[in-house]
Specification:
Nucleotidyltransferase, domain 5; magnesium; binds adenosine-5'-diphosphate; nucleotide-binding; Ac/propionate_kinase; Aliphatic_acid_kin_short-chain; alpha+beta; 2 domains; binds magnesium ion; binds acetylphosphate
Length: 391
């Protein structure tokens, strides 16, 4: 028996299979991705099972989702070594005010989640399209929605409230926070390994989307993303925090909603500033002034936002890095560590260099007042645990 975890993103659908032993959900034994899911696309299925990577290029199809999932179904059922799937766990970015914990998906719940599309236009439509496609392909399996916002249900009112008229706050215009499945995983790892993690913790999830979460007693108490996944840090293609006056100025220049949305979500961040790429690895390999400027701004913004959250925590006991950049970019971690040296952060250069694999590692020097960890995140495992709990 096993749980299938699904993360249907804007360009790629990622999946993993987590066996259940003794009622405990295990790390994935099979991971894979599907690309080419845009209408009329030719889906590409990649997966790794028992150390063997496999690749299947499918025909162009009117409904590539349907095509890809039928192929995935064949793959799962065709190999007797793949454990039988008992339920499907979906990462859903926005749970709004109502869903502060995972839920089993029903038709009315799917409708409620559809109403939240405008709050996360880059993520929610793909997440829900994924759920619908899996419901069609695997109608007999229970499906569970696990929300990125749920971990932040513990934000205190003073943190989630914007300085807006109350009527708007009551409508749900407030800070929600995202990357919650990742933070839940990182927090659980830290609590298992470090007594200090019960104290003041700053977690940095630095991937294509990037955010920070401040936690105390293992619970989120502040986070850099807000009402939408646009706020806070500079990201691959997103601006992060920006003075709303800029948007008013652009509207006056005739920019409409769609053009602003594209600017804020898709044309800014590392891509916009460098004019080269949204991909940190690609920018690190580029010695141009534009690439350096983009990386410097990314780093600076991470320091600035960290300072704000550390002030809210009243100090820092543990700093943790996750996400593609957090897990692999040695220089970014070294820079952030140096610029937080005034707090007593000392990263050991050798340990920092070694932390680029898939290992959980502490990278602080013995004299560091703050523990520094690299925790390769596992959103799929958290979602699978949630699904197992609910079914
Ligand atoms: N070795 C590396 N050095 C620097 N950045 C890296 C490295 N490996 C991956 N990254 C960066 O991680 C980012 C993607 O993060 P990831 O968490 O995988 O993305 P997603 O949010 O899509 O899940 C990209 O900017 C990528 O360049
Ligand atoms: C919420 C969010 O930004 O997610 P991702 O990092 O997957 O884009
Ligand atoms: Mg991500």
């Amino acid at each position: 028996m096993a749980i299938l975890s699904v993360n249907a993103g804007s360009s790629t659908l990622k999946f993993s299979i987590h066996p259940l032993y003794d009622g405990h959900v295990q790390r994935s034994v099979l991971t894979g991705s599907i690309q080419g899911l845009e209408p009329g696309g030719a889906p590409v299925l990649d997966w790794t099972f028992q150390g063997r990577a496999q690749h299947r290029q499918l025909e162009r199809a009117a409904d590539p989702f349907d095509q890809a999932l039928r192929s995935l179904g064949d793959l799962l059922q065709g190999d007797p070594a793949v454990p039988t799937i008992k339920a499907i766990a979906h990462r859903v970015v926005h749970g709004g005010r109502k869903f502060s914990a995972s839920v089993r998906i029903t038709a009315p719940i799917l409708n409620e989640l559809t109403d939240l599309i405008s709050l996360a236009p880059l993520h929610q439509p793909q997440n829900l399209q994924g759920i619908r496609a899996f419901q069609k392909a695997f109608p007999s399996l229970p499906q569970v929605a696990c929300f990125d916002t749920a971990f932040h249900a513990t934000l205190p009112e003073v943190d989630y409230t914007y300085a807006l008229p109350q009527a708007l706050t009551e409508q749900g215009v407030r800070r929600y926070g995202f990357h919650g499945l990742s933070y839940q995983y990182v927090m659980s790892v830290l609590l298992e390994r470090s007594e200090q993690a019960k104290g003041r913790v700053l977690m940095a999830h630095l991937g294509n989307g990037a955010s920070l979460c401040a936690a105390r007693g293992g619970r989120s108490c502040s986070t850099s993303m807000g009402f939408s996944a646009l706020d806070g840090l500079m990201m691959g293609t997103r601006t992060g925090s920006i003075d709303p006056g800029v948007l008013l100025y652009l509207m006056e220049q005739g920019w409409d909603h769609d053009r602003l949305e594209t600017l804020l979500y898709k044309q800014s961040g590392l891509l916009g500033v460098s004019g080269i790429s949204a991909d940190m690895r690609r920018l690190r390999a580029d010695s141009s002034a534009a690439a350096l400027a983009a990386i410097e701004l990314f780093t600076y913004r991470a320091v600035r936002e960290s300072g704000a959250l550390i002030a809210c925590l009243g100090g820092l006991d543990v700093l943790a890095f996750s996400g593609g950049i957090g897990e692999h970019d040695i220089e970014l971690r070294a820079q952030l560590g140096q610029r937080l040296a005034w707090l007593g952060v000392v990263i050991d250069p050798l340990l920092n260099q070694q932390a680029v694999g898939n290992e959980i590692m502490a990278i602080h020097a013995p004299q560091s007042r703050v523990q520094v960890w690299v925790v390769p995140t596992d959103e799929g495992l958290v979602a699978a645990r949630e699904a197992a709990r609910l079914i």
